[in-house]
Design brief:
Elements: E1 2-6, H1 18-27, E2 31-35, E3 40-41, E4 46-53, E5 56-63, E6 67-70, H2 74-77, H3 81-90, H4 101-111, E7 122-124, H5 127-137, E8 139-144, E9 154-159, E10 162-167, E11 170-174, H6 176-189, E12 192-196, E13 208-216, E14 222-231, E15 246-247, H7 250-258, H8 262-288, E16 294-301, E17 307-314, H9 325-351
Parallel strand pairs: 1-2, 1-6
Antiparallel strand pairs: 3-4, 4-5, 7-12, 8-9, 8-12, 9-10, 10-11, 13-14, 13-16, 14-15, 16-17
Helix pairs in contact: 1-9, 7-8
């Protein structure tokens, strides 16, 4: 079994996770070929890429792989669309991008099944839009549509005729004109959305959420890789690990926060995530005839223990601090092998 790892970067030494996927491939009885679009020779059906041999990445010319794990940035691979489309004609891909926050939100909202778990979200085009929503909800979150790692997330609280802003860990107190100028400047840089603030805090008063990491296994079924809480630093609403947040193991955290209810909440989070992943996969197949293999689902629990979906992330990365990088790679390699065998079986049946 030859598994291709498609990435926008030419050299695997610049992609930290490439080694883990190469190591796990060997352990699973497969070979990994790392490559970028510029290494593809469509005419001769040859790829110039890299294989991991005796502790080093070595350049190699290879026939087309049996399956392609497309792990690069969709934005950075868009220039190679023609090459990628040609590869897709003959080779199964493990997954495809599901779009940004608002595309996912609109897709789930239109489908309806999970719409009651969506935080009302609206892309705004002017400061006036924001003030309308501020009047409606009092406490709102203002964040970039294409933001990553919690960057640029702002909590805005209206107190009489003043507006208190918490931007990551920085506090501001604005009047109407000052907030209008602040928002107008931000909207010149990139698109932003606004949504009501969900109160999800620990007993000690720190903001937190849950990241659920799900993948498909060797049978093509969704499984939980991990669920873990992400806890914001004191005085911040951003729980993302890259922005100074911390994490913990799920069960001790749930016991600490919910006592005897911890097991019911654990099951609630697991079942919700698996059902949402299956639904997202179904929508991707219905709308684009594509499958997905891995998701990171960020959710909050409000004061009434209701789940709210913050975000659904494609290619969420390995969970931090739990040594699960090889687990993530193993699930991916096994699923890639599964769809390669499935593709080969279909191909043989057509020619019998």
């Amino acid at each position: 079994m030859l598994i291709g790892m498609l990435h926008h970067r030419k050299n695997p030494l610049t992609v930290i996770k490439a080694y883990a996927y190469a190591a796990v491939s060997k352990a699973e009885g497969a070979e990994l070929l790392y490559f970028s679009p510029r290494g593809v020779d469509l005419e001769n059906k040859v790829i110039h890429g890299y294989v991991y041999i005796n502790g080093n990445w070595q350049e190699a010319d290879s026939p087309f792989p049996d399956v392609i794990y497309n792990s690069g940035s969709p934005e950075k691979l868009v220039h190679a669309k023609e090459i990628i489309d040609k590869l897709r004609e003959d080779i199964p891909f493990t997954t495809f991008s599901i779009g940004n926050k608002m595309r996912i939100y609109e897709r789930l909202k239109t489908a309806g099944i999970f719409s009651s778990y969506l935080i009302p979200s609206k892309i705004i085009h002017s400061a006036r839009n924001l003030f309308d929503l501020c009047n409606q909800y009092r406490n709102i979150v203002f964040k970039p549509v294409n933001g990553r790692k919690g960057q640029g997330v702002t909590l805005i609280r209206r107190i009489n005729d003043r507006f208190h802003l918490l931007v990551e860990a920085d506090n501001y107190d604005f009047n109407y004109d000052e907030l209008r100028a602040y928002v107008s400047n931000k909207l010149k840089e990139e698109p932003y959305l606004v949504q009501p603030y969900i109160n999800c805090k620990t007993r000690s008063g720190q903001v937190y959420d849950f990241r659920s990491h799900v993948q498909k296994n060797e049978e093509g079924k969704w499984i939980i890789t991990s669920i873990y809480p992400r806890i914001a630093p004191r005085g911040s609403i951003v729980s993302n690990i890259n922005s100074g947040g911390s994490t913990n193991y799920l069960v001790p955290f749930l016991k600490q926060e919910f006592g005897d209810e911890y097991y019911d909440i654990k099951c609630y989070l697991e079942q919700f995530t698996l059902q949402l992943a299956g639904h997202m996969d179904q929508l991707q197949q219905e709308n684009f005839s594509e499958k997905i293999d891995e998701l990171g689902v960020d959710v909050a629990l409000d004061d009434l223990r209701k789940i709210w979906i913050y975000e659904v992330n494609w290619r969420p990365g390995s969970p931090p601090a739990f040594y699960l990088e090889l687990d993530v790679a193993r699930n991916m390699i096994r699923y890639a092998s599964f769809i390669a065998r499935e593709h080969q079986a279909k191909h043989l049946s057509v020619h019998v």
